[in-house]
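Objective 1b: paired records.
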Amino acid sequence: MQNLSPDLARSFARRLGFVYAALFLVVGCYLPYMPVWLQWRSLDADEIAVLLAAPLFTRILFTPLISFAADFVGGRRNIVIVLAWGALFSFLLLWAANGFWQMLLAAILLAINWTTIMPLIETVAAGGIRSGALDYGRVRLWGSLSFIAASLGCGIIIGRVGPEVVLPILVAGTLLLVVGAHRLPRELGARRHVAPNVLRGVKLADAFGLVRAPLFLLFLLAASFIQGSHALYYSFGTLNWRAQGIPDGVIGALWSVGVVAEVGLFAVSGRVIAYCGTARLLMLAGLAAALRWSILAVDPPLWIIGPAQMLHALSFGATHLAAIHFLAHAVPENRAATAQGIYAAAVAGLVLGTATVASGPLYSAFGGAAYGVMAALALIGAASAYRLAQTWRGGLVTGAQPQSSGAGGKTSPPS
């Protein structure tokens, strides 16, 4: 992806933006309203928590394996296409499933296909960042805008039609993702675009080298606890607001408020990273998440919930932005997909999965007050990010001597 002409760089950004938009059209319906659909299918809180967590645990094994395979073969486009078709088939199976166990099997199959698509797309984006051909935030914001449209639109549609409409919307969104996957340029991930010193395929020992690197582990701890603190919100946020008597259309707007703020952050992401640095931005995200969950823990009135949702720009958006920039500059290029897979397995698998399973009994016992536990997780993440800011200087964390600049000679602020 190096030395792209301006026309090719714009085409690359447009196609990648379409894929992000399709991805988050699905996510914008799935996250807020899949619990509503599962409740409509007569599942209780513990069963809902297990169904939502099962895909997260599944990715612990399959996401690193598939990502490692992408690095090993040196290309990602064909794998993304296969996974997109697999996700479509999985949603159709979930739609047709009857009872908890059939739904669980469909959810696991969905996880195998769906959860690796995002790390592979992020790997492609990280390559664009590394080469200087892509302003990540300005492309990624199309995903956030799509999330807003999906969460608002689905809330309105569900309010008028009912929860049964959730799966048809998810299938339609996944069809768009299949189209976007086929539109990705064939040269993505091709070895001829990689610098000579990283032409060799990644080895299994390289993957183990990543998980043994202390700074990489510290980064994983910080990012996973901050993102994992969103578990109760993702699983029971909509149900908790419904229990407070908030209409579905307003709930959709509440989900969208946070993502609007996230779009604003992504639009100026280059300046934010240059000013804050990667690790310090991660620490700020953890503190913002702790504040957000502390507010929601007291079941505040609607006029407080709305502004509190603006903190999503930091609790999720800044965490994600910092993570992508860390992985772009701290990991050797030939291990990029593997690193993304390990990151996804730890953040959106092990930690978020465990927190999601725990959210069922926590919500059953304490209701919205269970957000206090999420605030504690976020504080642990913030403390880990503070330590990372003190020790990482912006270079590679494994596989090479530390450097103070990113690819292409452009300085990457470490902290």
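Objective 1b, second protein:
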Amino acid sequence: MNEMVKMVVVLTVLSAVSGGVLAGFNKGLASQIEAQQLTFVKGPAIKAILAGSANDPISDRFKIADGETEKIFFVGKIDGKADNIAFENYGKGFGGDVGLMVGVNLTSGKVIGAAVTTHSETPGLGAKAKDDPSFAAQFKDVSIMDKEIKVNKDGGKITAISGATITSRGVCAGVTNAMATYQKLEPQIKEQIKQFDK
């Protein structure tokens, strides 16, 4: 019995020390992890959506609290005016969450672009949501006031990717969620973006 107690104590101490070390590494590397994600995961989508920006949208960004989470908004300054933003949202795909960057023009109140950033979808089918520019192009000029974006099969205007209707629905849900987030945070977004309009 004494040996069993020693073993439990040793395992508990080792687990606590290991957990502490890993937490320390995670905290210490957080800024580097964020930089890598911005460069290689989110960066290409941000730059595609905010193409033509005179500024660097990845470095020109601000955060707004949305409940218990924090949303990062990337600013695009086009034609001398900082009135374009991009931010990440999620929808439920076939293989899990589909992360996508959604761009909005603050003046027109329309989506300027959408691009998938992360997914666990089937290669050759659902993965096309990230690789097929014609699919993403369908979201351009959608009004942020639209109630819900849907695929054709559900009575909407978006043509689903062949063989990947669930993924297509997930992307539509992500854009719909992004529009709801934008509407909820619009006053704060418009206040924050003033600092970039100089």
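The chain is about 40% helix and 25% strand. The first helix runs from residue 2 to 28.
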